[in-house]
Amino acid sequence: MTSSTTKTGTTIRILIHGASGRMGQALLRLAAERDDAKVVAAVSRAQPAQRVVDGVPYFAAKEMHGVPAFDVAIDFSLAGGFDGILGLCAERDAALVSGTTGLSDAQRAALESAATRIPVLSSANFSLGVAVLSELVERAAAALPGWDCDIVEAHHVHKKDAPSGTALALGACAEHGGASPRYASLRAGDIVGEHFVQFTAAGERIELNHRATNRDIFARGALHAATRLPARVPGLYRLRDLLA
Ligand SMILES: NC(=O)C1=CN([C@@H]2O[C@H](COP(=O)(O)OP(=O)(O)OC[C@H]3O[C@@H](n4cnc5c(N)ncnc54)[C@H](OP(=O)(O)O)[C@@H]3O)[C@@H](O)[C@H]2O)C=CC1
Ligand SMILES: O=C(O)C1=N[C@H](C(=O)O)C[C@H](O)C1
């Protein structure tokens, strides 16, 4: 993988997939503040009204094969857009950081297959708080055999998938600890993302709660991972592998 070298070191060339969305806009704004990364292309599903915004060339997904060289794609789109960006990264020998949720089993299998050829990181949640919550949930589940485990998630009304990717990932942690989680979803107003995990037995209850109030936490985590992933050998990475 090639990256341009500047006075300040290596600049990672990034493609943002899902650029017109809530997460895409946060990523573009925060990437512009970094001197170790440069966004070289922005892609969304629809034909963009302007071809270049703030020096970044925009492409419609169907024109994506004409994008310039990049080291890593950051994908926050929808499940319907995932196959296209995974295929482009494999074709260009570029890394992929994906936060897209609602992927099918077949898409997960394609991701694992691509990881034999390129470095890939797919995470339902790029916040540090949820990384810690995941560990707490697994520990609580393991320490509380036989307790009920319920995961309640709340998001904005535009969110398409339910339960959220984070709720399912927390559920997998609970299952790893031996629990059998149940899920409930709420869609209301502009809630950024809330996850509530409750362990209940007769006469007592433990409640673990994470509230995201700003999408910048996810965008910062994804940008951090994107600056590190291109240097890695092909494989399937977790967020925690790239935190140090
Ligand atoms: N892992 C994490 O930490 C987080 C994950 N997410 C996930 O990120 C994703 C995006 O969320 P959000 O920004 O709120 O969503 P938005 O609906 O605001 O944006 C979706 C973006 O994806 C593009 N898109 C949709 N379909 C396609 C397609 N078929 N091909 C190419 N591009 C497509 C849209 O383009 P257009 O506007 O032209 O339709 C738009 O740019 C969701 O899956 C969400 O669950 C969100 C926050 C944090
Ligand atoms: O769609 C969102 O907004 C979010 N999606 C992710 C999920 O499905 O878990 C992460 C975050 O909660 C925001």
What does this structure look like?
NAD(+) binds at residues 18-23, 99-101, 123-126. This is 4-hydroxy-tetrahydrodipicolinate reductase. This protein is an alpha/beta fold and 244 residues long. It has 2 domains: 4-122 and 216-242, NAD(P)-binding Rossmann-like Domain (Rossmann fold), CATH 3.40.50; 128-212, Dihydrodipicolinate Reductase, domain 2 (2-Layer Sandwich). Helix content is 31%, strand content 30%. The chain has 6 helices and 13 strands. Strands 1, 2, 3, 4, 5, 6, 7, 8 and 13 form a 9-stranded mixed β-sheet that branches. A 4-stranded mixed β-sheet has the order 10-9-11-12, with helices on one face. Helix 2 links the parallel strand 6 (72-75) and strand 7 (95-98). Helix 2 packs parallel to helix 3 and helix 4 packs parallel to helix 5 (165-176). The two termini are 22 Å apart. The mean pLDDT is 95. It binds NADPH dihydro-nicotinamide-adenine-dinucleotide phosphate and the ligand O=C(O)C1=N[C@H](C(=O)O)C[C@H](O)C1.
Name the CATH class of the largest domain.
Alpha Beta
Mean pLDDT: 95
Overall number of structural domains: 2
- By CATH, the topology of the largest domain is Rossmann fold
- Total count of strands: 13
Number of alpha- plus pi-helical segments = 6
Ligands and ions found: NADPH dihydro-nicotinamide-adenine-dinucleotide phosphate, the ligand O=C(O)C1=N[C@H](C(=O)O)C[C@H](O)C1
Quaternary organisation of the protein chains: single chain
| Straight-line N-to-C gap | 22 Å
Order of helices and strands: EEHEEEEHEHEHEHEEEHE
Described by strand count, sense and barrel closure, the largest sheet is: 9 strands, mixed
**Amount of beta strand:** 25-35%
EC number: 1.17.1.8
Function: Catalyzes the conversion of 4-hydroxy-tetrahydrodipicolinate (HTPA) to tetrahydrodipicolinate.
Subcellular location: Cytoplasm
Domain Dihydrodipicolinate reductase N-terminal: 12-126
